[in-house]
Structures are given as C-alpha cells and as structure tokens.
C-alpha cells in the first residue's frame, strides 16, 4: 500500500527560527516525492520535488529511503511562509497520494 | 492566466439532488484528476482520466461519476448527494508520455460543495 503521513497538524515557529515539516511514506518501490503548498485562498501548488534536488524559497527536502522520510526544511522561517503544506507521493498507477497536511504558522 | 479552472467556486445543493461540478484546463494535459478533500484531511483521489480512459479508485462510491467530453473539460457528477459528500472538490491535471508522468499535478482552486 502507498501511504503518506505528516505527524504534525500544526507547527508554529517564530520568524527567523528554523523549521522542519515531517513527512514519512510507505511504498514498496521507488517513489517520487513532492511537497505542495497552499497559501491562504490560493490553489494547491508545487513547492518542490525530490528528483530536482533544488531549493525553492529557501526550502529543501531530502529523500531518505532508509527512514522512508522526506522532511521539508528551511533554516530561517519568514512570515510569508505561513501556509498549509502537503507531502505527496507518486507511485502505483502514476497517481498522487497526499498526506493530511501541516499548517505552518510563522509568528512575528 | 489560470491554467486549471473550476466552476463554480461554491456550490450549494439539496440532499439527493444531482449536482455537476466542472473543470477546464488550458495546459493540454492528457491526465485529469478529481480529488475530494474534507476538512483537515488529505485530498483523496476519486478517479482520473488518461485521455479518454477512465480509471476509478476502488473505494469511490457509485454515487460519483465523471465525464470527459474532450481534452479541456472534465465533469464530476454526484447523482444523489448526501450530507457526507460536503467537501472541497479539487481538479488537477498532469502530462503523461507512455507510462511516465512527466509533470507534477496542477490544481484548480477547488469547488466547495455544501449539501443542505
């Protein structure tokens, strides 16, 4: 079975503090992992994908196959990072499976 | 320059009264998805089209149907909405070449369905 878990429903940090949003997955093959972000009143949009190995808006995420994790990190959070973050997996049938999401609140 | 457009943004329907939600795209993507998202839950895939091929998820109730008359449009039909069907419905698209999906999923803004 393919499944994505995000243990934190809500994460609050102060501006300038480091942030880590956790994501774990279960999948028997080699998955493709994504982070999607949804800002207030906007559509769900791609933040980054593991195969790109890029940093977007200061965020990075590393796929750890041993721990089946794909945690999202940023060294210095900004207020504009406040949003809903979804971890997603593309696996069987080439469909996207989403985690329940973590709401990040960056406090001034 | 919206690429995936869902109409309407908000839909109120009566219990048991059929309702249709629509989605259009300007990306010329060959895959279109419908997700259901209830409050504080993950988006849940209902079904998807690869070109004209319809792929239903095993646990999608028969109450939910879909139509894709052409590449640009896809509809979600709920034949007899129940109170439990109140949710945000998300349409998304992606491009597939052969067995490989080349792009991420592009989402519309969603339609929030209320059942009264």
Structural class of chain A: mainly beta
Q: What helical percentage do the residues of chain A reach?
A: under 10%
* Arithmetic mean of pLDDT of chain B: 92
- The beta-strand count of chain A equals 11
Please provide the ordered H/E string of secondary-structure elements of chain B: EEEEEEEEEEEEE
- The coarse overall form of chain B would be globular
Cα separation of the termini of chain B = 34 Å
Name the assembly state: heterodimer
N-to-C SSE string of chain A, H for helix and E for strand: EEEEEEEEEEE
Uncertain runs of chain B = none
**Are there runs of chain A of 5+ residues with pLDDT below 50, and where?**
none
Give the C-alpha Rg of chain A.
13 Å
Q: Let me know the number of strands of chain B.
A: 13
Strand content of chain A: 35-45%
Largest sheet of chain A: 6 strands, mixed
Strand content range of chain B: over 45%
Helix content of chain B: under 10%
Q: Largest beta sheet of chain B, briefly?
A: 7 strands, mixed
Number of distinct helices of chain A: 0
Largest inter-chain interface?
A: A-B, 21 and 25 residues
